[in-house]
């Protein structure tokens, strides 16, 4: 049965037990592209639609998701996600208030570069992420934080991006037939997107965001003037994905999210488990985890 562990919140909570995956489950859930022949999926022919553009249709596996979930492979071949026994010889970590607890992780190397006058705000939001990050309250993570789509439905007129996110199922409709951005729309978590082709690369430009989301973790806020440009380039059974965020009111320069490679999989999407914020009563300290997608 599919479940959102800890509801959906990434707060520091009281341990609820150890979660294991058996070796048989690990094998069954491996991406469909992992075959015995180890053929590079990018080496396969790139399919095209009748209009000559690359065919982006498909369900894709990628290395995004919640980076703080670090699987630990145990000696018996199973994989442990939560409550894992510590490696031999390692000392247990003290929690905050019990000998100094784990420090808040520093911003990643690819953290957006903010203007000096906004650095204090970034630090304050990072220190109070548990209280301020709307993604920890089952809200849409926003763009580009949501990462690349899990499935694409592609026609000559539009591309539909479907997401199986830790906060639920989301979708974006991207016109690619020359239509401009729509007028008069309320600002939203996922914004208003339009697409265009540059050669064999689909360029998606999204604007009209609210300012309730972050670019990624650690207080990386943005303004309502955020503009995000995503690039999707299909090569064989893969898509090369990159997203760049433009917000000159607060950023010194455009910020590029780490590029990802998506790979076709035959495992279809399922309905996402409902996100429920049920962890507030279990908070034991203000620490949080990286969740860069």
Report on the structure:
With 293 residues, the chain is mainly β. It has helices spanning 23-28, 119-127, 129-132, and strands spanning 19-21, 58-61, 72-73, 79-82, 151-154, 158-165, 168-175, 192-198, 201-207, 227-235, 238-246, 255-256, 260-264. The strands form two sheets. Strands 2, 5, 6, 7, 8, 9, 10, 11, 12 and 13 form a ten-stranded antiparallel sheet that branches. Strands 1-4-3 form a three-stranded antiparallel sheet. A hairpin with a 2-residue loop joins strand 8 and strand 9. The longest helix has 9 residues, at 119-127. It is globular, with a radius of gyration of 20 Å.
Key phrases:
mainly beta; disordered N terminus; 293 residues; Lipocalin
Which structural class fits the helix and strand makeup? mainly beta
Instruction: Give helix and strand order, one letter per element, not per position.
Output: EHEEEHHEEEEEEEEE
Number of helices: 3
Q: Poorly predicted ranges (pLDDT <50, ≥5 residues)?
A: 1-30, 65-70, 91-105
The whole-angstrom Rg is 20 Å
Beta-sheet strand percentage?
Answer: 15-25%
- The helicity comes to under 10%
Shape summary: globular
Fold-level CATH name of the domain at 39-64 and 108-273: Lipocalin
CATH class of the domain at 39-64 and 108-273: Mainly Beta
């Amino acid at each position: 049965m599919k479940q959102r562990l800890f509801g959906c919140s990434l707060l520091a909570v009281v341990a609820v037990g150890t979660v294991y995956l058996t070796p048989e489950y690990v094998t069954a859930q491996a991406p469909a592209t992992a075959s015995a022949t180890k053929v590079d999926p990018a080496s396969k022919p790139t399919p095209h639609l009748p209009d000559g553009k690359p065919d982006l249709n498909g369900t894709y596996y990628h290395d995004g998701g919640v980076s703080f979930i670090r699987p630990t492979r145990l000696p018996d071949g199973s994989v442990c996600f939560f409550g894992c026994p510590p490696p031999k010889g390692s000392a247990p970590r003290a929690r905050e208030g019990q000998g100094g607890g784990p420090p808040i992780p520093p911003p990643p190397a690819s953290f957006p570069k903010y203007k000096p006058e906004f650095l204090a705000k970034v630090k304050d939001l990072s220190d109070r992420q548990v209280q301020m990050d709307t993604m920890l309250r089952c809200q849409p993570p926003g763009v580009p934080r949501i990462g690349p789509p899990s499935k694409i439905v592609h026609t000559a007129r539009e591309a539909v991006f479907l997401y199986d996110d830790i906060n639920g199922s989301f979708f974006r409709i991207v016109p690619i037939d020359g239509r401009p951005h729509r007028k008069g729309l309320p600002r939203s978590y996922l914004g208003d997107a339009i697409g265009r082709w540059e050669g064999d690369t689909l360029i998606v430009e999204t604007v009209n965001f609210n300012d309730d989301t972050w670019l990624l973790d650690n207080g990386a806020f943005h303004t309502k003037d955020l503009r995000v440009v995503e690039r999707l380039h299909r090569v064989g059974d893969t898509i090369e994905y990159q997203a760049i965020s433009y917000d000159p009111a607060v950023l010194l320069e455009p910020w590029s999210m780490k590029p990802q490679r998506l790979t076709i999989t035959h495992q279809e999407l399922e309905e996402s488990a409902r996100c429920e914020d049920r962890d507030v009563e279990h908070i034991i300290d203000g620490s949080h985890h990286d969740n860069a997608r």
